[in-house]
Amino acid sequence: MARALAEAGVDAVYSYAGRTEAPVAQPLPMRVGGFGGVDGLAAYLKAEGITHLIDATHPFAAQMSRNAVEACAARGTPLIALEREPWQAVEGDHWRHVPDLASAVAALGETPRRAFLAIGRQNLDTFAVAPQHHYLLRLVDPPTEPLPLPRAEALIARGPFTVEGDRALLQEHRIEVIVAKNAGGKGAEAKLVAARELGLPVILIDRPWVPERPVTRSFQAVMAWLNG
User: Fold this and answer.
1) pLDDT band, very low/low/confident/very high, at 47 (cuts 50, 70, 90)
2) Cβ atoms 25, 1 nearer than 8 A
3) pTM metric for this prediction
4) Can you tell me whether residue 82 is helix, strand or coil?
5) In 3-state terms, what secondary structure has residue 153?
6) Which terminal residue of the chain, N or C, has fewer Cβ atoms less than 10 Å from its own Cβ?
7) How far apart are alpha carbons 127 and 223 in whole angstroms?
8) How far apart are CA 147 and CA 116, in angstroms?
9) b/e string for 106-143 if b means 16 or more Cβ within 10 A?
């Protein structure tokens, strides 16, 4: 999306939440950090003369999306969401859908299991109530504080990942179950394909609710919207 905007010469700014230490460089001017809720975002839109807002946040960054809908409504600023298609199970998948993180913890059960916890570092505390499991974590940045899970191993890596690499990872660490968010997209899908090939179960956390807004799956559609 950023590349298309830059190539078209659109006056745009790319906003990062600031949760990673070394965000990927973009071909647009960048800002990093929060806005201060709905009021802060509305004030930013006014101060910067923003005429259109593209919500391309992670599907699980629901609070940011909610704030964007409210701030744009308050300012009368057109908004469109660029959102990845959710993953859909195919033959051979053994998925259990759960509505939230707490339900994912419960789905792991009481018997100790070796789990690949592919949810990022922001929500690890939720799994501290189930310390009997051994957790394999894959994080973008090295943890700066002790992990809240007593039996955990952290790998530092940034996607996209390959099916071959993830299959080897699951086998090497003797993983019995995968816990993941239904983020969609190609960059993190490899673990699900590898799980299918190995016959492993997946606990898949459904996306959180966000207010109704225009949604598209392609950057081309966003460009058409901007030029419409």
Assistant:
1) very high
2) no
3) 0.87
4) strand
5) strand
6) C
7) 41
8) 15
9) ebbeeeebebbbbbbbeebeebeebeebbbbbbbeeee
Q: Which CATH class is domain 95-205?
A: alpha beta
Tens-digit pLDDT profile for residues 163-178: 999 999 999 999 999 9
Phi and psi at 129, nearest 5°, equal: -75, -5
CA 20 – CA 30 distance, rounded (Å): 14
Q: How far apart are the first and last CA of the chain?
A: 17
* 144 or 192: which leads in pLDDT: 192
**Ranges of each domain in the chain:** 2-84+209-227, 95-205
Whether the Cβ atoms of residue 179 and residue 72 lie closer than 8 Å to each other: no
CA dist 226 and 180 (Å) reads 33
